[in-house]
Design goal:
14 helices, 324 residues
Length: 324
């Protein structure tokens, strides 16, 4: 293989890894923790004992919006983290503790009562099993992948391509040592709940499931096939992304995840990031019209770049600054 071809191959892998990571990060956390027979039988074990990602001085980015009677903090999170990852800074803690409202992407990501009917409605296709859509070689890879993550081949066969692809993508991140239960969102939610702080969501589990299920079937199948082809490849993007996030390097975050995702699929970029950013900005402006202090914690990919929530707010004349 020539140097040029090796470079192109690495670029394609990086782009695909970014898409897989973005879709896994978008996944409602409760979906990944659903009972056996729906998606996974158990959480897959890491391939090897992970080394902790430790920023020398954790300082994730934090933005603030203020008017006469409102203060809104915008904090970018990573939904899947290693339990050993240090990320919280004093300014994040102080901002969080000052808030009288926590706003997450979804108010309760683990609401199985809401989630499971949605999966049955939008994620299962018993009349069009994956075994009727994939080649024999792809099915063999799917069977092997299912065993690796603790699921049965029969259970996977009933899934629509989007759900199979996102499930395998999320499991790849978990097998690299990441844990949805250690994600910043759930940690902040548990802390707010213990303190009696109200919790709200910018969207619902149904919004998320409909978004993923709404991708064209051909595109879903392409995504699943690429996920199967790369299932055993090492996924290094999360390590790099978490390190950039923990140190507040927003340019690196954009370069590692947002730019490659856009290069690979403008549809995914628009659907997963831009369209949601626009809807969330509407909600945030409504909060700004009220009073009090809110701590808004959403995936960090939504807060970096020209199409981010801060950028959209600025384009509407709202001053957004980096929190001191």
């Amino acid at each position: 293989m020539t140097h040029q071809h090796r470079g192109e191959s690495r670029a394609r892998t990086r782009m695909s890894a970014a898409c897989r990571l973005a879709l896994a990060a978008t996944l409602t956390i409760g979906l990944f923790q659903s009972p056996a027979g729906t998606v996974l039988a158990q959480t897959p074990a890491p391939r090897e004992a992970p080394s902790p990602i430790q920023a020398s001085a954790p300082n994730p980015a934090l933005w603030v919006v203020r008017d006469a009677d409102s203060t809104l903090y915008l904090f970018g999170t990573v939904h899947f983290l290693r339990p050993t990852t240090a990320w919280e800074s004093s300014r994040v803690t102080e901002a969080f503790d000052s808030a009288d409202l926590l706003v997450l992407e979804v108010a309760d990501p683990n609401d199985q009562a809401a989630l499971l009917p949605l999966i049955q409605r939008h994620g299962l296709a018993p009349d069009t099993p994956l075994s009727s859509l994939l080649t024999a070689e792809e099915l063999a890879t799917l069977d092997a992948a299912a065993r690796t993550i603790g699921a049965s081949a029969a259970a996977m066969d009933r899934l629509r391509p989007w759900l199979a692809g996102v499930t395998l993508s999320a499991s790849t991140v978990v097998r690299a040592g990441y844990d949805p239960g250690s994600g910043a969102d759930l940690i902040l939610r548990a802390r707010a709940e213990a303190a009696g702080t109200p919790i709200a969501g910018l969207e619902t589990p149904e919004d998320q499931i409909r978004m993923l299920a709404g991708f064209p079937e051909a595109g879903q199948l392409t995504f699943l096939r690429r996920t199967l082809a790369e299932f055993d490849n090492a996924l290094t993007v999360p390590d790099q992304l978490v390190e950039a996030w923990a140190t507040g390097d927003v340019e690196a975050i954009h370069a590692l995840a947002v730019t490659p995702m856009r290069l690979e699929s403008e549809l995914i970029h628009q659907t997963v990031l831009v369209e949601r950013n626009l809807r969330w900005t509407d909600r945030i402006e409504t909060l700004l019209e009220g009073s009090g202090t809110a701590f808004i914690a959403v995936g960090v990919l939504h807060l970096v770049g020209d199409d981010s929530v801060p950028a959209i707010l600025r384009s509407r004349g709202v001053e957004v600054v980096v929190a001191p």
